[in-house]
Amino acid sequence: MKIENSHISNRIWIAPFILAAMIATYTLIIGGWSVDRFNSFNATLWDMGIMVQSIWNTAHGSILHESVNLGYSVSRLAMAHWELIYFPLAIIYRIIPSVPLLLYIQSFVLACGMIPIYRFAKKKLSSESAALLISLTYLFYPALHGANLFDLHGLTFATTFLLFTFYYLDKGDWIKAIILGVLSICCREDVAFVIFTLGIYNLFKRKPGETIEHGVAFQVSAIFIGISLLWITAFFSRAYFIGSTGLAETNSMVPNWKNSIAVPIFGFLKLPLPNIISIIQSICSYESIKYIAKLILPTIGLCCLSPSILLISLPTVLLNLSSNYYQMRQIEYHYTAAITPFIFFATINGMANLKQWSARLPKLQVNRITFVFSSILLLASVISTTQFSILRFHKTWRVSEDNKKLSQQLRAIPSELSVSASARVGAHLANRKELYHFPEHDSNADLIILEFNRPEVEIKNLTGKLRTSRVSAMNQFTQRVFQDTTLGIRFIEDNVFCFQRGLASKASFEKFCLLEKMPSNVAATHLIDFGNGLHFLAWKSIYIGNQQAHFQLFWSTTESQPETTQLNFYLASSESQESIPYQPVLGKIPINEWEPGKIIADHLFINRPGSTETKTYSVIVSVFTGKNFQQRQVFKFDFR
């Protein structure tokens, strides 16, 4: 008897240890990749910058305020999602203002979702090994990775809260179920749709010896339904109320819902009615079918054997499928957060149904079937991860030394200064009240920070329906910044330019572009003598994109150049030759002011000619001093 009790005791102790180990491993690995994605500048203002700024402002007394969406500081309670879960995060952020810490917390909370999955599976399948395998399957679920790694979102936390809510409802632990249900709604307002259907599910899920009319389950269901209806009505009423007070009604709604199935449901609140035909087409589209397949395939379809549980997530599924925002039909984003819990509970219940249908088989054989299906489930989830999980791209999130140096420069910027920045660097500048997406407020922000280290950048679209646009790094807006004489350079790091209003423009360019020696990462092996002491030393490719290329050029002069000196660039192929718009040192330091003995670090931007074919181009430089003329080919490159 003692040996048997000891064996049972060991099993009871081992399972929590395994769960804790899996939670810790997931948090460290996935949380680490999430931090790497941020530190390698793969997160953007949309949504990392917005969410972190909302948390930072809340920590400093401005409740859920952010300035990226509308171009001025306003609470998200008035114009966007309701993510009250940010309040406890704001307390932590006030004490430790670390974005990586927030990302690790998000990963840890998601990992803890395996606890209710394990408990539910153990209860339904009467198999501890199967329960552990299914819990591990959850950590390999591709949609979970998308929600975890796409920035920071309140909705992402709802996955774990909903898992615990359903588990406690099933267990009959009503107080905990209500508390976790309320926490779920606090993650984002649309979770209330799921809480509503969860209340309906619980209402019709009879328990032995309990009537629907008088049981506690009925009261809990009434609470769930009542809270969700109140929350949803308040959210949609807000849009009409704010519109009537002067703020444009279109700005006070969540844009993703403007043309979705949620609108006709609440059309009585004077929200615009969508095109019903377009909603049906969206739901039945190929992208929607592929989206559903990616949600179900990792469970090998077992979730479909328990439709009553699966249907709890139906409101969120319909909302995602009917939205005109295509990202809501992609598993690489956080929009699956309220669906994942019921996919897994339906899968477990589906396996329990299979087990029940196999009751005529010997008990040992039934247990083997349960273990085999659990193993296949884990294998399917692992294979799905290799095929369509966002984890496939983790190697692109490696943090370089240049990334670290740039992050250090950005962290040194005081939070009192207002900033207008391009999307990727803007995500690292959220600890301030005034943060804007360039080119918004480029005429009055204290700092303007622009990326010239990638072919395309994401800037805010000041006109039209799309909120952002992808454009070439050097464009009409960035050219306007270079021409602004009130701006000087605060720093240049990894070809990210930080302009500060009030700094002497020309003097700051001289500081960063007239160097004492050649940079250590550039070798002066391309010496070309253009006469009169002017030498072309080297060139370095910063990027060669589909539409634009950026090169850094290095010059030196042993003599002062006359004012009449003209430096012209041409782009030549086997078929044609055309001039390249060029101003020495970005138009700030003319050639006659290049100091003898200094290394001149210059920049050349080349827009692709009309042809889209892969071609080799030569960059030709001509120098005319008024007396002498020299023309040389300085380098070649391919536009692909």
Keywords:
5-stranded antiparallel β-sheet; elongated; single chain; alpha+beta
Let me know the largest β-sheet: 5 strands, mixed
**Count of strand segments:** 18
Gyration radius, in Å = 30 Å
Average pLDDT works out at 89
Q: Looking across the biggest beta sheet, what order are the strands in?
A: 4-3-5-9-8
> Fraction of residues in helices?
40-55%
Tell me the strand percentage band.
15-25%
Q: What is the topological layout?
A:
Elements: H1 2-39, H2 45-59, E1 65-66, E2 74-75, H3 76-79, H4 86-95, H5 99-111, H6 114-125, H7 128-139, H8 142-149, H9 154-171, H10 174-187, H11 191-204, H12 216-244, H13 262-265, H14 276-283, H15 286-296, H16 307-310, H17 314-322, H18 340-357, H19 363-388, H20 401-411, E3 419-421, H21 423-426, E4 435-437, E5 447-451, E6 456-460, E7 468-472, H22 476-483, E8 487-493, E9 496-501, H23 505-513, E10 514-515, E11 528-529, E12 534-544, E13 548-557, E14 566-572, E15 577-580, E16 599-607, E17 615-624, E18 629-639
Parallel strand pairs: 3-4, 3-5
Antiparallel strand pairs: 1-2, 5-9, 6-7, 8-9, 10-16, 11-12, 12-13, 13-16, 14-15, 14-17, 17-18
Helix pairs in contact: 1-5, 1-7, 2-4, 5-9, 6-7, 6-9, 6-18, 7-19, 9-10, 9-18, 10-12, 11-12
Protein model, in words:
The protein has 3 domains: 2-39 and 98-396, no CATH class; 401-509, no CATH class; 528-639, Immunoglobulin-like. The protein has 640 residues and is of the alpha+beta class. The protein has a 5-stranded mixed sheet. Strands 10-16-13-12-11 form a 5-stranded antiparallel sheet. The chain has a 4-stranded antiparallel sheet with strand order 15-14-17-18, with no helix packed on it. The protein is built from 23 helices and 18 strands.
